Prior knowledge:
Elements: E1 10-14, H1 19-30, E2 34-39, E3 47-50, E4 53-58, H2 61-68, E5 72-75, H3 79-91, E6 96-99, H4 106-116, E7 122-124, E8 130-133, E9 137-140, E10 149-156, H5 159-168, E11 174-179, H6 190-199, E12 205-211, H7 216-227, E13 232-237, H8 261-270, E14 274-276, H9 279-292
Parallel strand pairs: 1-2, 1-5, 2-4, 5-6, 6-7, 10-11, 10-12, 12-13, 13-14
Antiparallel strand pairs: 3-4, 8-9, 8-11
Helix pairs in contact: 3-4, 5-9, 6-7, 7-8
Amino acid sequence: MTIYLNKDSKIIVQGITGGMGSKHTDLMLQADANIVGGVNARKAGTTIELNGKELPVFGTVEEAMKETDANVSVAFVPPAFTKDACIEAIDAEIPLLVVITEGVPVQDTAELFAYLDGKKTRMIGPNCPGIISPGESLAGITPHTIAGKGPIGLVSKSGTLTYQMMYELRDYGFTTAIGIGGDPIIGTTHIDALEAFENDPETKAIVMIGEIGGDAEERAAAYIAEHVTKPVVGYVAGFTAPEGKTMGHAGAIVSGSSGTAQAKKEALEAAGVKVGKTPSETADLMREIMKSL
Length: 293
């Protein structure tokens, strides 16, 4: 089993005709993703050929879903138009919306977060690599050749650290790896993914990657202590980050002792999570756990 995405997922791409949209749709097709079409209001009624497959372009998400039975949308839309594209997908009740776009204004994301309340759509991102269930499907930009299928679940704030951890643990493989994004406000959280992995019978252990800033990791630690029975190993990026400086992701800023890597490490360890000081050390901790299972 996988979480959120599997071989039966039917994917549409909002912004399929753009440079990034077409490039990554091609790569998703190479990963065996079942891409069934795209959305671009200005090019509705045309087709686009990618990876040898002729894909229809629709005017709206609603129309695309009606014609193709799509249940996943991946959005490659410029930041200024991302909110409108997401609202369109949410109104169409697409079950899963993966928002890759970086630089979406925080106010737009805050409005989207509020708009999602009570709706049928799960949003991943923005500013994220998306989600991959190796050997089954890819909705996003994660290179599908890093690692194959296996018993580990991975949830990460960082795209590049998602890739590195998949590479480090490629000898075991993954049920699903999900990059939730590093913005201050995101759709799917560490806790959402932890709950899904806990409920997935094929996921035997979980890697959780966080980073400095905010309190998402502390909240995840409290959730793990209460609700997660599977072994979890963690890594927190940013042990050497200077206080008060935004590092890379919009959400990665430390003020005082709040949001530091050390504080997050201590919260996770108090919940029984083994935390590595480097990605490689974290992978070694997971290997020890896998050998004992």
